[in-house]
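> call design_seq(struct)
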């Protein structure tokens, strides 16, 4: 038995008739036992499959006990009637019922998508807790130091340039001074924006708000502009011809895009060949969806790891490298916060990650006139 898999307890009174199929056992660890009111609140427990003649008050009390201990589980009740207690159970946990003698194979087929979605939700909430409790101060300082490096260098170079001109010329031309002061002002503003964004990272009390897709893509481009130029990687942003707005947490979607582009950038490190390297991020839309395509020509994802890249804790980077959220958390952000999907395809030495989000801007609202 794989003890790292989420746990499902199969509890029964009398004779057990439910038998899990291979699909269910590939995603979950299952334990079968006679029902007892003292259910062990195992750390990995995510669901209970209960076989009983009728769902009674003592069953409800067991579920209440687990809920009081902070266990967020799904209850699959294979029983008759007892609507009163089942209704009470459904108020404190997700609850589905099936009549006795339901075929195991069809029951497994019906509950597997729901159970997997529940586990993804639990993992995402746990990831948010870990992210909020990690050493965010050090991470923030590293981001500030990295992002401030280019503006500080440019400001320093321009100050030296003005100093040299003032030494060589009695009167420095006004256009030259104007150009330098404008650049210094722009870079200082950029540093202020970077600091503001970093200070907002990891805030737990946030509000969803509409945000511009093209403005977000521009911010992501600025984040990588100097890094990709130094590494001679071409970077292209193809924004929407007509800007659209999404409703949600812009910083979280930016974090996903930054992670995908960072992964693409790092993929070139394993390619010794000299050729025209490129990363492209393109936004498209339909009446119902917004799509982001992040494409690189770094040689594609090795076939041996393609099925693993969205798994928890999987990484091809060494310790202390990367941006920390990983593809698993990136996909959870997309599915849980934006109700979308994150997929990828590999062809002709290229990798394309596609984020598909449902449209939720003002164009999707229906107005009812009285």
């Amino acid at each position: 038995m794989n003890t790292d898999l989420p746990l499902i307890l199969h509890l029964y009174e009398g004779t057990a008739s439910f038998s899990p199929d291979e699909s269910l056992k590939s995603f979950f660890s299952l334990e079968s036992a006679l029902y007892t009111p003292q259910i062990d609140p195992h750390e990995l427990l995510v669901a209970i499959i209960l076989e009983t003649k009728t769902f009674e008050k003592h069953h409800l009390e067991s579920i209440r006990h687990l809920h009081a201990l902070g266990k967020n589980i799904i209850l699959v009740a294979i029983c008759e009637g007892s609507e009163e207690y089942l209704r009470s159970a459904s108020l404190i946990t997700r609850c589905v019922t099936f009549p006795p003698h339901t075929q195991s194979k069809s029951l497994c087929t019906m509950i597997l998508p729901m159970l997997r979605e529940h586990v993804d939700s639990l993992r995402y909430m746990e990831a948010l807790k870990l992210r909020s409790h990690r050493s965010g101060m050090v991470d923030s300082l590293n981001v500030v130091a990295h992002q401030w490096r280019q503006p500080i260098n440019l400001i320093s170079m321009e100050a030296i340039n003005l100093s040299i001109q003032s030494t060589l010329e009695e009167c420095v031309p006004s256009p030259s001074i104007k150009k330098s002061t404008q650049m210094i002002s722009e870079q200082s503003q950029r540093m202020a924006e970077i600091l503001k964004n970093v200070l907002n990272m990891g805030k737990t009390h946030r509000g969803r708000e509409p945000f511009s897709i093209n403005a977000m893509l521009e911010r992501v481009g600025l984040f990588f502009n100097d890094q990709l130029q130094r590494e001679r990687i071409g970077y292209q942003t193809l924004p929407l011809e007509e800007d659209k707005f999404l409703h949600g947490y812009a910083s979280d979607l930016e974090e996903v895009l930054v992670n995908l582009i960072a992964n693409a950038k790092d993929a070139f490190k394993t390619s010794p060949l000299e050729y025209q390297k490129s990363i492209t991020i393109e936004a498209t839309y339909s009446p119902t969806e917004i799509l982001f395509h992040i494409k690189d020509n770094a040689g594609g994802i090795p076939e041996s790891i393609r099925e693993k890249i969205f798994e928890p804790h999987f990484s091809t980077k060494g310790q202390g490298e990367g941006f920390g959220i990983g593809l698993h958390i990136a996909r959870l952000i997309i599915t849980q916060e934006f109700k979308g999907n994150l997929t990828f395809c590999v062809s002709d030495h290229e990798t394309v990650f596609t984020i598909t989000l449902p449209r939720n801007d003002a164009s999707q609202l229906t107005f009812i006139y009285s």
